[in-house]
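Class prep. Write one:
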Amino acid sequence: METSQPWTMESSWNARVIGPIEEQAWLDQAADYVMELAKPLLEMPQAERVMDFLHGRWLGHALHPVLTDVPIGMWSGSLLLGLVGAHKSAGVLSAVGSAGAVGATATGFADWSDTVGRDRRLGILHGMLNVGGLTLQVLSLSARLRRRKRSAMMLSMAGLSVSSAAAYLGGELVFGRGVMVNHDAWVSGPEDWTPVAAEAEVTEGAMKPAEVAGRRILLYRERARVHAIEGTCSHLGGPLYEGEVSKGVVTCPWHGSRFRLTDGAVCRGPATFPVPRLETRVRNGQVEVRGRQG
């Protein structure tokens, strides 16, 4: 299930620049075309494991930002070495950066595939610019191999410029839109033990939504012990309390991330961060919870 969130208008120079761009209908068409091309790969038996790897669940946070440092750093170094005349060394860095860009592209696609609406449109533009930057760098490397130093330098500058523009859009997606960040990062409390439900309402193997401190949490009983985790998906803030439960795991209704109800651990992406758990105890027939401190 894909859910697009409403958004309020922003008043800033970059919002005035990016806003009209991300509303272009052709970006939706381009995104649909890319997803159609990728559909056979996403339907392969091992696709779920591969996507989990690309999302970075094994790393504990998104893998894409880690890999993007490689091409940007290498290409910047290549340009600098070319300017001082170390063209052979510049070629080596250009080649390494281009190889690293392939991994960054794969992880970027994995993260982008779970976006919708304005984030999806901005993401496809970000990806297209990155592919353009990579193409220019490969052409620059080819020119270096043919000893066309001036052409190589011009192509390298153009490629780094395009990739820098793409990086700016990537920063907007992460820092401005919260794509692939932990949406439970600012959750804390309650500081004191707080009753949230009668013990009799929490049955074995079933999920019980409750409220505490103005937010939703999930109660779950397993082997007579009651557990509690936050009710918001760490991926994009989806309502876990509306998700399906099977064998102690809740599935987010938005993008299919799965979390273990006993401790909030991620069992499947695209989420890479676990859902925070709360301390629980039973007093006088009431389930009480206490959250992590701010």
About this structure: The first helix runs from residue 13 to 22.
